[in-house]
Amino acid sequence: MSVADVKKNAQDKMAKSIETLRANLAKVRTGRAHTGLLDSVTVEYYGSPTQLSQVANLTLIDARTIGVQPYEKKMLGTIEKAIRDSDLGLNPSSFGEMIRVPTPPLTEERRKEMVKLCKSEAEDAKIAVRNVRRDGNEQLKKLVKDKAISEDDERRASDDIQKLTDKAVVDIDKLVAEKEKEVMTV
């Protein structure tokens, strides 16, 4: 393994941590409806748990309502029950062959809880990035110990990994600030 491999590996892992944070923040509810809200809902489909998006078409009817149209009519009740039983606090209602899922407006208290959740997700992402930095530095120390690189090369590479870490932390803070602004907007 070379210094370039260590840096590339660290950069890739940090990017994955940021993408994971982005995905987790997308699940945090804002005042508006979006189909990603139902990504975590699973439905019992022929004996196996299946994601809702695999058994139904998800659409936005308006800014506060998600439409769920099952591919099979008999799944209507099962899907409605799965959405109701999920911990999202949504109350779906059948409307012919479609299920309407209105998203209730968020209270100020609930918005603050969502912001806390966002900050918690950000902290987890920062911890993941710092762990990647630690692993990269340990790999560099091992290369020095094996006499594959000099101590000066290790110090330079370590500084580069620190710069990657700083950039990743700034990106995480930006993502959370955007999401916080989005959540607090009424």
TrEMBL record:
Cited InterPro entries: Ribosome_recyc_fac (IPR002661), Ribosome_recyc_fac_dom (IPR023584), RRF_sf (IPR036191)
Alphabetic keyword roster: Cytoplasm, Protein biosynthesis
Organism: Massilia norwichensis
Protein name according to UniProt: Ribosome-recycling factor
Annotated compartments: Cytoplasm
Role, per record: Responsible for the release of ribosomes from messenger RNA at the termination of protein biosynthesis. May increase the efficiency of translation by recycling ribosomes from one round of translation to another.
UniProt domain Ribosome recycling factor: residue ranges: 22-184
Family per record: Belongs to the RRF family.
A Pfam family matched in the record: RRF
N-terminal signal peptide: none
